[in-house]
């Protein structure tokens, strides 16, 4: 299977006046637009976490209903990414990006103005739809903007940093906005950057006609995969509430498996498949996506469980929690922007991925011993700084996940890669939260104090995250081929 070739004219890009393929005059501006959109969407996914108590108090959410502020977004976002990525290839990735950004920005306005639980959950679902439309094609646009390996590696480093740092920055922004203003502003803050991204994207992103619906308008396949992903994510995010062995979880899990199996069978037979099998057969693509699911699931223990521990066990407020996690974002940025592209060019994606997984494993192993009443400089800051490993892991995974994408499949490969990120988040949310809640309940029943019981539950989640990272390391070691080392001159 061929990969993107710098000398190959993109299949979906219209020719310029001289017959050469159209390229934007300002690719750096286009990269800034894509990165800004990714930061906005990623930040929105985490900014809600520290504002949940305020949302519950002001809008009257019940304990079960409050989880749908997160779940509605996850189900829409994760369920539509693969379809949106393929539609971007067929209808034009720029069109899909602009439409998604517009829907996301409008939904942010509706969420900020919501006056009831139902309206907020509906707006969050719409945010997930818009976020999926824009995010699904972002990497596909990026790889066509930067066809040369060195330029693409640097662009992926910038793009990966915005995604990795967005979660940490969301904690900071959510805490500050909620404490200083109100929860409404965690959504309204998206309006200025959303409008700016729309205006600049029109000018900077390359125009593309797409392949046309006839090249892959598999309606039944689209229904199978979208229904399967949404049903599967719904089953996973309800595990903590319903239980892993409940009829609800097993029933919806089985339905998701049936739909996704039907989708896979159809793709091998359909005349114009939604996801051509060649995409997953590209070297490293399937393995990179598998490793990503494990890594993202494990790092949920860091991005969410640490924030909960700081507030529930250590007694931090929302704003202080965000500031406490800021060193992780800075460390990720320093490594991702300053080192990752050069290290990947010299040693290859596989080696850098394996090297980055080591400090992340140490990070979670240290948190297993985090005491109540912890000293921030001694007990927490080292773990924050070890988060720098994510600045190596995500760019390497992104390069591997997009390495086999052809020009006409770039949107689909992008959507697939972003889908596995969301599946990892849903898996981490379900498994680690369930383990933590069960351990907390057991310790409480045994007579432990509230803080001790919560801390014990978080310890189990950190231990489970360490195991997931170990599995990711083994999968990368065994399944990913050793790359050719591209030594810099």
Automatic annotation (TrEMBL):
Segments passing through the bilayer: 29-55, 61-84, 96-115, 121-143, 155-177, 183-205, 217-239, 245-264, 285-310, 322-345, 352-372, 384-402, 423-441, 461-480
Domain Major facilitator superfamily (MFS) profile, first and last residues per copy: 30-484
PROSITE patterns hit by this protein: MFS
Residue ranges, annotated region (Disordered): 1-24
Keyword annotations of the record: Antibiotic resistance, Cell membrane, Membrane, Transmembrane, Transmembrane helix, Transport
Pfam families tied to this protein: MFS_1 (PF07690)
Principal place of residence: membrane
Gene3D superfamilies the record matches: MFS general substrate transporter like domains, Multidrug resistance protein D
Low complexity bias (residue ranges): 1-11
Localization: Cell membrane
Topological category with respect to the lipid bilayer: Multi-pass membrane protein
Top-level taxon in the UniProt lineage: Bacteria
InterPro entries the record matches: MFS, MFS_dom, MFS_trans_sf
Protein name (record): MFS transporter
């Amino acid at each position: 299977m061929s990969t993107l070739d710098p000398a190959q004219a993109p299949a979906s890009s219209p020719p310029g006046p001289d017959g050469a393929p159209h390229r934007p005059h300002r690719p750096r501006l286009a990269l800034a637009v894509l990165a800004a959109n990714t930061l906005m969407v990623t930040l929105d996914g985490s900014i809600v976490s520290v504002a949940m108590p305020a949302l519950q108090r002001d809008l009257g959410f019940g304990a079960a209903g409050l989880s749908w502020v997160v779940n509605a977004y996850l189900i829409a976002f994760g369920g539509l990414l693969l379809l949106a990525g393929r539609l971007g290839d067929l209808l034009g990735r720029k069109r899909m990006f602009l439409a998604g950004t517009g829907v996301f920005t409008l939904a942010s306005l509706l969420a900020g103005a919501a006056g009831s639980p139902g309206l907020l959950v509906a707006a969050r679902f719409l945010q997930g739809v818009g976020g999926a439309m824009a995010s699904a094609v972002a990497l596909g646009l990026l790889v066509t903007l930067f066809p040369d390996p060195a330029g693409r590696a640097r662009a992926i480093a910038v793009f990966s940093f915005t995604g990795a740092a967005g979660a940490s920055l969301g904690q900071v922004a959510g805490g500050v906005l909620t404490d200083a203003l109100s929860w409404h502003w965690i959504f309204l803050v998206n309006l200025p950057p959303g409008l700016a991204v729309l205006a600049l994207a029109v000018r900077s992103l390359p125009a593309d006609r797409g392949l046309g619906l006839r090249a892959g308008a598999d309606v039944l396949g689209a229904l199978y995969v979208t229904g399967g992903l949404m049903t599967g994510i719904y089953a996973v995010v309800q595990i903590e509430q319903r239980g892993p062995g409940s009829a609800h979880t097993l029933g919806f899990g089985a339905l998701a498996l049936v739909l996704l199996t039907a989708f896979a069978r159809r793709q091998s037979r359909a005349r114009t498949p939604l996801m051509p099998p060649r995409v997953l057969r590209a070297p490293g693509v399937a393995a990179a996506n598998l490793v990503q699911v494990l890594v993202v699931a494990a790092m949920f223990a860091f991005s969410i469980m640490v924030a909960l521990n700081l507030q529930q066990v250590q007694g931090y407020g929302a704003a202080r929690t965000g500031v406490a996690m800021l060193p992780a974002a800075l460390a990720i940025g320093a490594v991702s922007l300053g080192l990752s592209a050069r290290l990947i060019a010299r040693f290859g994606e596989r080696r850098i991925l394996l090297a980055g997984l080591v400090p992340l494993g140490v990070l979670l192993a240290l948190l297993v011993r985090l005491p109540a009443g912890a000293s921030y400089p001694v007990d927490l800051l080292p773990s924050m700084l070890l988060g720098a490993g994510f600045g190596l892991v995500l760019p390497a995974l992104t390069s591997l996940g997009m390495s086999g994408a052809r020009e006409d499949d770039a949107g689909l490969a992008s959507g697939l890669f972003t889908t596995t990120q969301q599946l990892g988040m849903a898996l981490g949310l379900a498994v680690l939260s369930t383990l933590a809640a069960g351990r907390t309940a057991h310790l409480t029943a045994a007579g432990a104090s509230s803080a001790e019981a919560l801390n014990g539950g978080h310890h189990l989640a950190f231990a489970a995250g360490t195991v997931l990272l170990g599995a990711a390391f083994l999968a990368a070691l065994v399944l990913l081929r050793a790359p050719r080392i591209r030594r810099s001159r």
